Amino acid sequence: MDQQTDRRGRRETTAKSGELSPYRRFEREEWAHLRADTPLTLDEADLVRLRGLNDPVSLEEVVKIYLPLSRLLSLYVEATQGLFSVTNSFLGGEGAKVPFVIGIAGSVAVGKSTTARILRALLSRWSSSPKVDLVTTDGFLLPNAVLAREGLMRRKGFPESYDLPALLEFLAAIKAGKGAVTAPVYSHLVYDVVPGETVTIDQPDILILEGLNVLQTSKLPKNGQGLPFVSDFFDFSIYLDAEDVLLRQWYVERFMRLRETAFRNPQSYFHRYAQLTDAEATTTADDLWTNINLVNLHDSIRPTRPRADLVLIKGADHRIQSVDLRKL
User: What ranges in 112-243 are assigned the alpha helix state H?
Assistant: First the structure.
């Protein structure tokens, strides 16, 4: 086979792969044009409050990435509400208000929390002034005492470390339109669920659920009577992705910054790391990344990426380079 024939074959294979993909890819500038006339309702002061540690999102990023996404979500919410209305009419009932639920998934250190907070701020400032709540799945982790007893402390964040029945019960109540639904609270300071502390979610218009494994599935039972997946309660789902080398860099950088800040608090679960030298801290962060978080990413998190409605693909400095939107 000559080189020209080989190149033609590769081009045909790439073209076919693109045709078979369930996503349409938008490069950064192409996506930015889809903002249309969506107004910028955040300023630099807002971003300072919304940014996560080591996630230097800029106003330009909000304008080019998050405003088009906000516009898209407003269309989805409107369409979903219309469908709910006609279905209710068909059934001859009024029914309770059902929140539009958005799931956000992705690796540790990819910037899920920043994305969730920015979206919450933008969505809550729509002209209709919807009530937007944000919940993370950290609160549904099993308590450290349980994880330790089950030998799962180094599997924290893996699917088996969550109280899945409690999370499903929470989402079922939300989607049933119930008021004053409670969710457990997690403390990153003590690295554990806070006993007896809860947050109340009271019939929001939109709920954002952010977590590592929210798109995770389980084995389907042969009798067809299995529990639903967490994502069955989503109206729209987002996956944040980046190359492993970048995720490792961001994780280590964040660890080093925490060593100089939060870890210095004597109450911090990780207080012992505050006294490490730079070399020791880098080695520790590498161990945690390579033997825990990277394993979780490859085994449990990234395999769920194809289940998302939209994928935000990051490059250096957390800058989103392209957007994959599921084809309708």
Answer: 112-124, 144-149, 164-175
Per the structure block, which two tokens stand in for 139? 């609160």
Closest CA to 279 of 300, 297, 256: 256
| Residue 8, H or E segment | helix 3-20
- Residues linked to residue 324 through DSSP beta bridges, in sequence order: 25, 311
| CB distance 124 to 133 below 8 Å | no
Lowest mean pLDDT among 180-194, 207-221, 228-242: 207-221
Give the pLDDT of residue 59: 95
Among 96, 52, 110, 150, residue whose Cα is nearest residue 249: 110
**Whole-angstrom Cα Rg for the chain:** 21
Residue whose structure tokens are 């509400």: 81
CA distance 185 to 141: 10
How is residue 240 annotated by DSSP? E
Q: Please choose, from the candidates 142, 168, 161, 310, the residue with its C-alpha nearest in 3D space to the C-alpha of residue 230.
A: 168
Closest CA to 323 of 26, 24, 23: 26
8 Å CB contact between 88 and 95: yes
CA atoms within 13 A on the CB side of 27: 2
Angle at alpha carbon of residue 119, lines to 115 and 122, rounded to 5°: 140
Claim: this prediction has a pTM higher than 0.85: yes
At residue 118, the 3 state secondary structure works out as helix
203, 99 contact by CB (below 8 A):
yes
Structure tokens at 316: 């250096």
Task: Compute CA distances 193 → 62, 111, 138, 145, 302, whole Å.
Answer: 32, 21, 8, 10, 25
Report whether pLDDT(240) > 50.
yes
The values of phi and psi at residue 291, to 5°, are: -95, -10
Q: In one letter, which amino acid is 290? A: T
- Per DSSP, 190 falls in state T
